[in-house]
């Protein structure tokens, strides 16, 4: 059985680009290797830009799912 790492949540609803990408990157930098972070972002530019920014920095996008009027992005720090 594999060990589950705890998952933190970063709610960036209402935060405009590029601040939301910067905040997500800063949070990921502070986390341990293998840690999971769920980021909540708005429809539109945030769901397009935040995952691209994280992938460009080498973070792994596990999933993206729409829930109500927001998107939840699950990311792992390699």
Which helices and strands appear, and what pairs or packs with what?
Blueprint lengths: L6 E5 L7 H11 L6 E7 L2 H12 L3 E8 L2 E7 L2
Parallel strand pairs: 1-2
Antiparallel strand pairs: 2-4, 3-4
Helix pairs in contact: 1-2
Remind me, CATH topology?
Answer: Translation Initiation Factor IF3
Low-confidence stretches: none
CATH 2nd-level architecture:
2-Layer Sandwich
Distance between the termini: 20 Å
Shape: globular
Q: Assess the beta-strand content as a share of residues.
A: 25-35%
What does this entry look like structurally?
The protein is of the alpha+beta class and 78 residues long. 29% of the residues lie in helices and 35% in strands. It is built from two helices and four strands; from the N terminus they run βαβαββ. Strands 1-2-4-3 form a four-stranded mixed β-sheet, with helices on one face. The longest helix has 12 residues, at 45-56. The radius of gyration is 12 Å and the shape is globular.
In a nutshell, what does this entry contain?
The chain is an alpha+beta fold. It contains two helices and four strands. The protein has a single domain (7-76), classed as Translation Initiation Factor IF3 (2-Layer Sandwich), CATH 3.30.110.
């Amino acid at each position: 059985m594999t060990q589950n790492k705890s998952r933190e949540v970063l709610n960036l609803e209402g935060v405009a680009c590029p601040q939301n990408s910067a905040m997500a990157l800063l949070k990921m930098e502070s986390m341990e290797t293998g840690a999971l972070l769920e980021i909540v972002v708005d429809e539109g530019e945030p769901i397009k830009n935040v995952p691209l920014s994280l992938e460009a920095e080498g973070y792994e996008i596990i999933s993206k799912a729409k829930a109500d009027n927001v998107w939840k992005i699950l990311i792992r720090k390699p």
